[in-house]
Amino acid sequence: xxxxxxxxxxxxxxxxxxxxxxxxxxxxxxxxxxxxxxxxxxxxxxxxxxxxxxxxxxxxxxxxxxxxxxxxxxxxxxxxxxxxxxxxxxxxxxxxxxxxxxxxxxxxxxxxxxxxxxxxxxxxxxxxxxxxxxxxxxxxxxxxxxxxxxxxxxxxxxxxxxxxxxxxxxxxxxxxxxxxxxxxxxxxxxxxxxxxxxxxxxxxxxxxxxxxxxxxxxxxxxxxxxxxxxxxxxxxxxxxxxxxxxxxxxxxxxxxxxxxxxxxxxxxxxxxxxxxxxxxxxxxxxxxxxxxxxxxxxxxxxxxxx
Length: 306
Known about the structure:
By secondary structure, the protein is of the alpha/beta class. About 40% of the residues lie in helices and about 15% in strands. It has 12 helices and 9 strands. Strands 7-6-5-8-9 form a 5-stranded parallel sheet. Strands 2-1-3-4 form a 4-stranded parallel sheet, with helices on both faces. The chain is globular, with a radius of gyration of 19 Å.
């Protein structure tokens, strides 16, 4: 059994294959009700961005572990008045046992980790969304019984979800294809890192062709075209993204048993059609539920409850 006690999760690449496997196995066991923990730990949620699934899933997960949760908004704390991150981090680490942060810059998350003595979890930054990918992997395994060798196609913006899928998929031996309009590809340094993590660099494909991406893929994935903080770019982006809409035509080009994922919120008629989101191949609601189980497993590991 791997030991993750006291570790941070800032990037999915902070974990190796064995460690991800440990979290996923525990998440599946927790979902089946085979394991239970009782702790007296306190989770802090420090969110600079709006949230539904992340906030609720972390809260319920910690309560089910037997712990407590404190929700912090920058606008109602001294952070909102300019207190340095370094000072906030040092103080919070004396009150809390673990802290999940949802913010914009990855660098701010790293500063929290550098000045904290407790585990710091990336609950979403502009660069990565590692907790989402753990839930995605749990959902894929529930449907296919494995991750290695599975082909996942991500359509849309080369955003934080795409970045974490590339890195996590490479670590777990998956084939990851990302199709974006020109100018919206994932960051080159993330793609390069994913190819180095993969057993074969050819497992990672970046393309502008949605048809190439979905061809015989077992998992079809999309996300919003306009991320939080980028609302001003909507009018410019949407026309370029229309060919990347996850619709019945693209689904028909994938494996006949392919599943559809979306990290939500979903905008029907934009990045995904209502027919696909609500169709028989959609596993979006299972995926959303699995955020709670995967994060419960992650916190149990980081807090040393296992």
